[in-house]
Design goal:
- The protein has 327 residues and is of the alpha+beta class.
- The protein has 3 domains: 66 residues, 2-Layer Sandwich (Uridine Diphospho-n-acetylenolpyruvylglucosamine Reductase, domain 2), CATH 3.30.43; 119 residues, Uridine Diphospho-n-acetylenolpyruvylglucosamine Reductase, domain 3; 99 residues, UDP-N-acetylenolpyruvoylglucosamine reductase, C-terminal domain (Uridine Diphospho-n-acetylenolpyruvylglucosamine Reductase, domain 1), CATH 3.90.78.
- 24% of the residues lie in helices and 27% in strands.
- The chain has 7 helices and 19 strands.
- The chain has a 5-stranded antiparallel β-sheet with strand order 6-7-12-10-11, with helices on one face.
- The radius of gyration is 20 Å and the shape is globular.
- The chain starts with a strand and ends with a strand.
- Bound molecules: flavin-adenine dinucleotide.
- Flavin-adenine dinucleotide (FAD) binds next to β3, β8, β12 and β13.
Length: 327
């Protein structure tokens, strides 16, 4: 266990941000110490991983909790510590012929954060790979294992989003050794066809390379251009409204509802947005808010509010934010 005071919160929007305390969990016993520390300090707390999906305030008068649990154990199932880097895990699965992770290649962040918003990309969500999640419940000082069926996984949502008391310590994944790929996604099939690639003879690493190439052509690298990936979730509308959006891409969700592309909606109103000094939209993908490393928390939230308001005024659609806004 390590406790630091006046801690700098690293975040991929590069907002200058500090917290009163940082509490680093190095083993399970530290969780019990953390429970006492929280009760002693009587301060709010938040768990963070690599900070690639948060909007961090200038000062958080509370405790930022992090873990340094990064082991990968490949036995009956694959058990991975919360602080392991997600993409390192994807590379591990490819090396060890464990299938299913390749479409989620290059998603930034930690393994512990990945179930929180049920990370997904190119037709795959992490929920399909998870067996169970090992947690410490900060509300009652207990260790619990939550089976995937009880995680309430939905599009960019899980029970962990609703309950910030659940500190994820490790994730148990299925280690599927059967060679099967998920290639049934528009941008993957287009890429394969345009490049005359033989669908039937693809190797594991080649699928990941295809995904990496498509991703890099669309999304900015947060090391060069500060961002948190998609800033808004794709909105889900009732099918009775679909005719209003004939010119937009939509995906069927249920018999009665469909998902619209938030990026396309924002692109259609971006000429109505005022320009801000330190924040803007990524030129190749309007769903991605970018900063020049000088943006403040307020500026990011003001820009977000103007985008939401303009979308609502033009389309009567409410956009939900994807990253966690720390208050
Ligand atoms: C360029 C870019 C591309 C992206 N592409 C995608 C994509 O394709 N698909 C996708 O789904 N996401 C994407 N994201 C979002 C991001 O990669 C994921 O949300 C990732 O899981 C965040 O990991 P993190 O460790 O940085 O989490 P953080 O930003 O540190 O935290 C995110 C949330 O998880 C919670 N949390 C973190 N660790 C724990 C823990 N151990 N226990 C409990 N709660 C925890 C935090 O409280 C917070 O609510 C992208 C982001 C960027 C910058």
């Amino acid at each position: 266990m390590k406790i630091n005071k006046d801690y700098q919160i690293t975040n991929s929007l590069r907002i200058s941000s500090h917290s009163k305390y940082n509490f680093l969990i190095e083993n399970n016993n530290d969780c019990l110490e953390l429970y006492d520390f929280i009760r002693l300090q009587r301060l709010p707390y938040i768990v963070i991983g690599e900070g690639t999906n948060i909007v961090a305030p200038e000062y958080f008068n509370g405790i930022v909790i992090q873990t340094s649990l990064n082991t990968i154990n490949n036995d009956k199932h694959l058990n991975v510590g919360a602080s392991a880097n997600w993409n390192k895990l994807v590379e591990f699965t490819i090396k060890n012929n464990i299938y299913g992770f390749e479409n989620l290649s290059l998603i930034p962040g930690s393994v512990g954060a990945a179930p929180v918003q049920n990370i997904g990309a190119y037709g795959v969500e992490i929920s399909s790979l998870i067996k169970s999640v090992e947690c410490f419940d900060l509300s009652n000082n207990s260790f619990i294992t939550i089976n995937a069926n009880d995680c309430n996984f939905k599009y960019r949502h899980s029970c962990f989003k609703d309950n910030p008391d659940l500190l994820i310590l490790s994730v148990n994944f299925f280690n599927n050794l059967k060679k099967e790929f998920n290639l049934n996604y528009d941008s993957i099939t287009s890429y394969i066809n345009e490049n005359n690639i033989d669908f039937n003879n693809l190797e594991h690493n080649e699928v990941a390379e295809i995904i990496n190439t498509i991703r890099c052509s669309k999304l900015p690298d947060p090391n060069n251009i500060p961002n948190v990936g998609s800033f808004f979730k794709n909105p889900i509308i009732d099918n009775s409204r679909l005719s209003e959006f004939n010119n937009f891409v939509s995906w069927s969700v249920t018999d009665n509802s469909s998902k619209l592309s938030a990026g396309q909606l924002i692109n259609s109103i971006k000429h109505l947005l005022p320009s801000f000094e330190n924040v803007g939209l990524y030129e190749h993908h309007s769903l991605v808010m970018i900063t020049n490393s000088k943006a403040s928390y307020e500026e990011v939230l003001d820009f977000k509010n103007i985008i939401s308001k303009t979308i609502f005024n033009n389309y009567s659609i409410h956009l939900d934010v994807e990253p966690t806004i720390i208050t």
